Amino acid sequence: MLSSWSPTTTTAATGLWFYTGKLYTATAKAVNDGERSINAAVKSANTAERSLIGLERPHIFVRIKPKLKVDMYEGHEQAKVKFIISNYGRFPAEIACCRFDIAQFKPVSNQIALRDEYHRGIGANKSFPITVSIAKVEDLIFDYDGNGDPISAKPKGHVSLETFFTIELRYKGLGDEVYESSYVWRWDHGVDRWTLHQSRRT
């Protein structure tokens, strides 16, 4: 029985293997190029999304009235702090946490027991005021008018004892990103007003 394998058959088979190998290499390169293109497109889309969120996100700022507000409550003098929360961003914010407190202590951290209030939304380019009573500051100096009504107040202070007012906010905007704004004001006894001690925003 004669073999059907001939020089012509061998040449054809060798050519088939060669072109099959070339086709495999070209296909593998095309797949790799396609994967790189997809990865580049995904990266570009993620970058565009982050840029959009960065442009459209809310930006929360807090301003404080420099002087204490005073009035009478149930026959007793009362001092209050008024501050204003503003959203200067281009997207509404949902305030998830608004903690604030006032305390007299030596200027050391981790000594303020903050209370959490005022969970609410705030529109783009909108503001709302908050006024809170100073319940924990025992040593206040009040000034009175001719009728005996309080017209101004300031915390007592000395070298080793200062008064700080702290606000910490966490809020959401477009997407699931959570942002933070925190402020600490110190009562300046030289000018009898709040002055910004430190702030941080993300």
From TrEMBL:
This is Uncharacterized protein. It comes from the Bacteria. The lineage of its organism: Bacteria, Pseudomonadati, Pseudomonadota, Alphaproteobacteria, Acetobacterales.
